[in-house]
Amino acid sequence: MRRLLYAVFAGLIATSAWADTIYTWIDENGRRVYSNTPAKGAQEVDLPPYTEVSPPSQWRSTTKESTPPASPNKRTSPPANHPPPAWPVQYQSFEIIEPQANAHIYNAAGNVTVALKSQPKLAQGHKVQLKLDGRVHQSPMHTLYFVLHHLPPGQHQLQIEVLDDYRGVFYTSPVRTFYLHRVTQAQQERRKASQNP
């Protein structure tokens, strides 16, 4: 039994150590690669703090006194012992910084990184909801980084909404257009080179 506990403890230590450092590099095919093992020319990725996501309410245990979660777009009253946050934070700017406007992104897997910037920083209790092509892409989260996976090639439009539990959506960004090409940058350069001998 003691050996089993040591093995579990060692596994937990190894897992936490593995999760601390991620490396990235461009492989010989022009694709960006991420790994926990560095390769030649790899750079360490500076990861933002992780975002903890609660499971949907139907998966949580409920008691008679529990209440359903508030709709993000519906105004709710704060509990009597918790006054609403001071309104607050006035964002001087809140914008999509990546991808840039009308950017052409080359990614064979169809993955796109979305980075946001706010001034001042994203306030506690505020969440960001990402809209892709006019539709909500995921649940609101307290983060400024998103990764979109397996997008089809072509034109796409991004928009962000900032919200909280009391006011719902209180800021909507302008639409940001980008173009996804499901080929690598190296393939694109070879194609251009063959067209212009």
TrEMBL record:
Pfam family, one: DUF4124
Keywords, alphabetical: Signal
Keyword Lipid metabolism: no
Residue span, DUF4124 domain: 12-57
Compositional bias of kind Polar residues: 54-76
Signal peptide: 1-19
Domain of life, source organism: Bacteria
Region (Disordered): 38-85
Keyword Magnesium recorded: no
Protein name in the entry: DUF4124 domain-containing protein
Source species taxonomy: Bacteria, Pseudomonadati, Pseudomonadota, Gammaproteobacteria, Oceanospirillales
